[in-house]
Amino acid sequence: xxxxxxxxxxxxxxxxxxxxxxxxxxxxxxxxxxxxxxxxxxxxxxxxxxxxxxxxxxxxxxxxxxxxxxxxxxxxxxxxxxxxxxxxxxxxxxxxxxxxxxxxxxxxxxxxxxxxxxxxxxxxxxxxxxxxxxxxxxxxxxxxxxxxxxxxxxxxxxxxxxxxxxxxxxxxxxxxxxxxxxxxxxxxxxxxxxxxxxxxxxxxxxxxxxxxxxxxxxxxxxxxxxxxxxxxxxxxxxxxxxxxxxxxxxxxxxxxxxxxxxxxxxxxxxxxxxxxxxxxxxxxxxxxxxxxxxxxxxxxxxxxxxxxxxxxxxxxxxxxxxxxxxxxxxxxxxxxxxxxxxxxxxxxxxxxxxxxxxxxxx
Length: 362
Prior knowledge:
alpha+beta; three-stranded antiparallel β-sheet; 9 helices; six-stranded mixed β-sheet; 59% helix
């Protein structure tokens, strides 16, 4: 029914109008005490407007109604001697205060509208960016695969190694890694990005450590590991740890120490990669986990990175509800990830003692 719809839409305004009329009648009935209902009308008008913020037309009509009605009643009482002439100054003063509140409320409403519009534009831009990353990465995989196939066939046909072909194949490997990283970043906001399960974390870290100690010639150290289970996606967690360890390998030399360790802090666990590399400059600490951020641009190309590895670490960690950590040392740096959902193993379960594998691969 039209009446019901009007009541639902304008219930607050109708209630205030009834309240204002009741106070006007009180001003008529109790002339010597009329300043009390007078202020009730103005204060209630200010409160209602603060929540509703009417359009200029209704605001002007409402303000005019209150000014005229209260002004006429006070003027009538002044003429009969029941009120002082100074009471008439209340009307313009309250009107000025209300208009000031109207100005601030409308500015606030405009600012919120601008912020909401910018938020929508930013969200749309991010969605287009993620879609572009996904589409571009997906489409580029096909020509990269085709180019790789032709180069490998050319190498087999020639019957001997060609430096040019080897360089081209290395660059294609690099392109494929970049495409995989971009695809992972594009998928990060999808609801099925993580497949959580219970992981025996110390055993999981031992496997990661043994695999890397056989790949890169460094002095690999396996530090103390917190025994317990972590609820996480093992595949994504492995990708994040691989990125941290790869970063450590890039910026260390043969024989430099790289240590993998973990420690529990209540229901959270911190996994750290401690290296003796070139370290991270102070000015890069705050942005080191951003996409395409590079602590040392001059060495990035030779190290084979484009600034996506640590961004992937941060993306995976945040998807798990954790946070990424980085700190400097006199010689090197410590990168870590803090993850929730860790349950410390019972005392009866044997723990992994600290050990020094001392594997320096030639």
